[in-house]
């Protein structure tokens, strides 16, 4: 057999994906293939061409220069699965809070619901995916320091000409993660610049990073004076864990993650609004009606109450249409 002719199993090993995914790529016409009798074959040059096309849409090394190799691999694998779901027309929800896991579970059980895919990205990336048609819902928590408002100013600027509906999910506390007992006595934003304080940041574009940068801007704190400002983690738990391991003295994140990591104390700094953005053109579709019904239901709120640490006084309320 020609050495440049590959079986689907060999293609799967080269691309490091499941064999069924190879068949799906062939079915969608993304990977050229042909039959030899009853067997499917793929030319090596077509596999190499597919890899080159993929590299054009993958993140560059510079984008992830502060992340570990494992973080980069996990993010690339996750993005590949989300891209596949998008191509298949699946419902994709952007956001990182565990309450979205609960929402997707309720959606699967709802008579007019559907299976939804979670895309674990920050608020900016979620809004961008929504604008580009790569997701159908985005959960965000973006604070505008000039107006002291959450989310609405960003939605109007990042989805121009796109009518949207914003639905309140929950109120959450953002604050500092410090070691038990707060040995460095970190209480204010300005404390981050003190000599000897090591900080661990979140990635650009997430709501937590926006909150930090807005507070630093308003208080005229020079971020270049913060030791560790350029060092990033991809989640609240990642930040809390770095502080617990002694790799940093302080990080910023929500209260829930602090309760999940031993040896971490939480210093509350700001109440935030966590909200879901949907395009108005989608609201008449059954799965979106089901989403709003779920968010307004007592069953959903009761499950969130069981987790604790959420303000549910406005959960399910439509707070803006633009």
TrEMBL record:
GO molecular function: DNA binding
SUPFAM superfamilies: Periplasmic binding protein-like II, Putative DNA-binding domain
Domain PBP, first and last residues per copy: 105-296
The protein's name in its UniProt record: Putative molybdopterin biosynthesis protein
Domain Helix-turn-helix: 6-54
């Amino acid at each position: 057999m020609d050495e440049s002719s590959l079986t689907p199993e060999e293609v799967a090993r080269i691309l490091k994906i499941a064999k069924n995914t190879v068949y799906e790529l062939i079915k969608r016409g993304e990977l050229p293939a042909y039959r030899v009798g009853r067997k499917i074959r793929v030319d090596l040059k077509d596999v190499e061409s597919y890899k080159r096309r993929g590299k054009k849409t993958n993140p560059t090394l510079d984008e992830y220069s502060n992340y570990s190799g494992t973080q980069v691999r996990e993010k690339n694998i996750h993005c590949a699965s989300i891209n596949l779901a998008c191509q298949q027309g699946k419902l994709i929800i952007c956001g990182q809070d565990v309450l979205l896991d609960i929402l997707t579970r309720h959606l699967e059980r709802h008579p007019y619901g559907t299976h939804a895919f979670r895309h674990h990205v920050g608020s900016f990336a979620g809004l961008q995916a929504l604008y580009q048609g790569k997701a159908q819902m985005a959960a965000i928590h973006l604070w505008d320091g000039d107006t002291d408002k959450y989310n609405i100013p960003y939605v109007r600027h990042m989805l121009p000409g796109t009518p949207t509906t914003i639905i309140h999910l929950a109120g959450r506390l953002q604050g500092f993660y410090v070691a038990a007992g707060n040995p460095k006595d970190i209480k204010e934003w300005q404390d981050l610049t003190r000599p000897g304080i090591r900080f661990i940041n979140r990635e650009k574009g997430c709501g937590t990073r926006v909150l930090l940068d807005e507070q630093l801007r308003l208080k005229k704190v020079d971020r270049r004076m913060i030791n560790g400002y350029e060092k990033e983690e991809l989640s609240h738990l990642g930040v809390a864990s770095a502080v617990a391991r002694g790799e940093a003295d302080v990080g910023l994140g929500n209260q829930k993650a602090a309760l999940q990591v031993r040896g971490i104390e939480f210093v509350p700094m700001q109440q935030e609004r966590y909200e879901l953005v949907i395009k108005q053109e989608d609201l008449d579709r059954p799965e979106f009606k089901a989403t709003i019904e779920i968010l307004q239901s007592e069953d959903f709120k009761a499950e969130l109450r069981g987790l604790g640490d959420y303000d549910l006084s406005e959960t399910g309320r439509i707070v803006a249409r633009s």
